Amino acid sequence: MSRDADRLHAVVDDAVALLGNTPDALLPLLHTVQQRIGFIPAESVPRIAAALNLSRAQVHGVVTFYHDFRTTPGAAHRLRLCRAEACQAVGARDLEAHLRERFGLLPGEPHGASAVSIEAVYCFGNCAAGPSLEIDGVLHGRVTPDRCETLLGQW
Amino acid sequence: MSDTPTRIFLPGDTTACALGADAVAQAVAHEAAARGLAVDVIRNGSRGLYWLEPLLEVQVGNRRIGYGPVSVAQVGPLFEGGLLRGAPAPGFQGEVDELPALRGQTRVTFSRAGIIDPLSLRDYRQLGGYRGLTRALTLCPADIVNEIENSGLRGRGGAAFPTGVKWRTVLEADPGPDGRKYVVCNADEGDSGTFADRLLMEADPFQLIEGMTIAGLATGADRGYIYLRSEYPRAAEVLHRALAVAREAGVLGDDLLGSRLAFDIELRIGAGAYICGEETALLESLEGRRGLVRVKPPLPAIHGLFGQPTVVNNVLTLAAASTILADGAAAYRQHGTGRSAGTLTVQLAGNVRHGGLYEVPFGAPLRTLLEEFGGGTASGRPLRAVQVGGPLGAYLPETQWDLPLDYEAFAAAGALLGHGGVVLFDETVDMRRQARFAMEFCAAESCGKCTPCRVGAVRGAELIDRIAGPGDQRALLEELCETMEAGSLCAMGGLTPMPVRSALAHFPEDFHG
Fold first, then answer.
1. What pTM was computed for the model?
2. Cβ separation of B290 and A62 shorter than 8 Å?
3. Which pLDDT score is estimated for B513?
């Protein structure tokens, strides 16, 4: 067995030991795997299913239902843009257009070889200080295209 | 220089930090150290006056003097200008408690928000915390439920169901051989334009913990879950730490305040699905499944989490329970109007000059909020449309801004008060695009279980795209909306037509060509 697979199995087994093996542990377990590996590798699904006594289809269904779970590695840099109404009211669509021009990507589009991914989020709860853009895990408010350039710097 | 450090407050709130509060807090600590001044920087929650964030407060005697918004560059000049004496310096706001935006409110649930250190149980208790639980421990479950029922409290998540009735149902439900009942806090605040739950959890987490514990005592549940959305990492951190503090202090766990009664809470994090704010989808998610809506009945109060009787309430509903038990049902009921008792937390968002959180008695006119508190649009252009109640709420034109903030009055006008989110749009808004977005959002977030929602949302967006085209597309869209309203399993599909139809009815000029 490859070292990667060993590591993956260890991550799953550790998480199960911590979170328990009842079916309701599935979401916390998937969060843990994604935190440690960066995504939910397809090879982890059978191991998780066996540990929680679920079918692989059940686990796969959950992984693909929730927007947070990724089945492929993330890009080096991760942008998350709020596309909801309160941010729209203060120019989120302009910011989206700016990001599209700069990175050639729409929110949610596969990032391919790009070092940057853009995801759509429907609300960070920063609705009185939009547009909201999260850059590598740090949320910023009142992000105009100009401020976006300042924040992204040399990217 | 005195040896007692001067207390300086800078919110650790999500919005305050999105506007630079972390960096300002660091700059304050550095500047004080460089000047040899003793300061204690406390990361409080936000007062909710978001246009002033980062709002720095300094304790001078028993007054708190505010400065805001403060940038890192202003920190040096602030110290130079006599910050620690509360002197007028850049961004000076005077005594924060005296600001008109706070004085004009009726702060009940948010009475401590922004004032205390969120993780200090001592602060919480000094300002009335845990009086509610202490009293609840002297009452039998039925009497706690009576108190909630008499207060007139209705669910703050949006549906406004009488909380006392829900709790009584759970209290009287037979838990069967399993014997367990649960309290679930719906902290999946997904509606755009709402942030009151988040602000409360970040500013005053013990109030929620206390309220859930009271709900447990009232219904015979010894276990609670907080289902928090993953988009709120700061709230997660505060809650995680607050739960540990509460357990350590014996106000949570096996022996509540020495009563031998038990209640504990587990924090669970969602995974980015809007539909999990719907209570039955939330329960599915907690059980480890996809967030598919369940058919009701059976109600969660009878057949809820793991099939057991379950209280599912919004953050603000549970938080209010601690105040109601502390001060009595009558004190709570004196606020509000008609069947809408107590206070409503209005969140002003979007294109608004003074955006933030305003807790007011039910019955206040919407226009007062928009104009007096909100101060109009941020852009300075005329206000054109206001969406109340989140993505499933109606767009209101100026003719409806005199509506009183009251569940029944909004319902009668074909609108929704919901969770109190109010999003302002100026004259540049394209209402056809907003109507289309309502359908788009529903298509993206529908759980897919029922056809009117899953398919209707996609068809709805297409219809809006060609609404100015040949044939009577508008009649078709109205018919589709009726189908979604009447045939959907839950409010997602059932209410998505509300923003669409209100946009069509009140802003028809945006749908031509």
1. 0.97
2. yes
3. 66
Give the chain B residue nearest A142 (alpha carbons).
B19
At B179, list the tokens: 């014997």
**Which tokens in the block code for residue A122?**
């429907």
Nearest to B350 among A61, A127, A140 (CB): A127
Q: Which amino acid belongs to residue B317?
A: T
B63 phi and psi angles, rounded to 5 deg: -110, 150
Which residue of A lies nearest to B198 if distances are taken between CA atoms?
A125
Does A74 contact chain B (CB < 8 Å)? no
Radius of gyration of chain B (CA): 24
Yes or no, beta carbons of B288 and A125 under 8 Å apart: no
Sign, CA dihedral B121-B122-B123-B124, equals positive
To the nearest 10 degrees (0 to 180), the angle between helices A92-103 and A145-152 is: 50
What pLDDT is stored for residue A1 in this prediction? 55
Strands (E), B372-490: 383-388, 395-396, 421-426
ipTM of the prediction greater than 0.90, yes or no: yes
Low-confidence ranges of chain B (pLDDT < 70): 1-3, 513
Partner residues linked to B63 by β-bridges? B60
Alpha carbon of A71 to those of A63, B57, B442: distances in Å? 8, 45, 24
Distances (CA, A) of B380 to A39, B99, B376, B422: 44, 23, 7, 18
What's B162's DSSP letter?
Answer: B
Q: Which two tokens stand for residue B152?
A: 């007139």
Could you tell me which of B332, B324, B364, B336 has the C-alpha nearest to residue B348?
B364
Residues of chain A short of pLDDT 70, as ranges, are: 1
The residue among B144, B229, B242 whose CA lies nearest residue B186 is: B229
CA B485 to chain centre: 26
